[in-house]
Amino acid sequence: MDWFAGLVKLLTGVQGVPHEVASEARQQCIYFANHSSHLDSLVLWAALPPALRARVRPAAARDYWGKPGLRACIARSFHAVLIDRARDQHSADPLGPLEDALTTGDSLIMFPEGTRNLEGQVQPFKSGLYRLAQHHPKVALVPVYLENLHRILPKGWLLPVPLTGAAVFGRALTLEPSESKQDFLARAREAVLALRRT
User: Fold this and answer.
1) pLDDT tens-digit map of 123-166
2) Which domains does the chain have, with CATH numbers?
3) Cα–Cα distance measured from residue 78 to residue 108, given in angstroms and rounded to the nearest whole number
4) What is this structure's pTM?
């Protein structure tokens, strides 16, 4: 899949700006980033070193990426972990598939905002990242800021606009023993925002 990573970089103009944690091939990670485009998972995946890509799986919404057709084909090609966003009292834990992926040694790409922000802002984080950090304390939590992707592929467009973007990786976080969910999620969001270069 190295050729595809090269194609993604060519079409989007995106280059990775890695931190040493993100470059460590033996380190299991949750890469968490801002979410503004359908390109986000592909670009973050392509920006990683080749040795990491085979064990990195993007989290994706089942109601969008699980529908039969091209979307489902793309999701299968990248071994996406499909999660159910719509939940009622009878449904299974939506984080269950992510927990399973981490237990088997895979790394994850996830977007704690839960949905795209088409203005390029970073919305408050939902609780999933906190729960995964609680249950998998040895997994490195790596913040990533994705620059300009909402302009490179605006909503409704099929082809990328010739602009330049970047995937900027930060230092890994850990959940502190006495840290509340609210404090951790605010700190994780700030870690992503701190990576903005423009």
Assistant:
1) 999 999 999 999 999 999 999 998 876 666 656 655 565 566 77
2) 2-193 (3.40.1130.10)
3) 11
4) 0.86
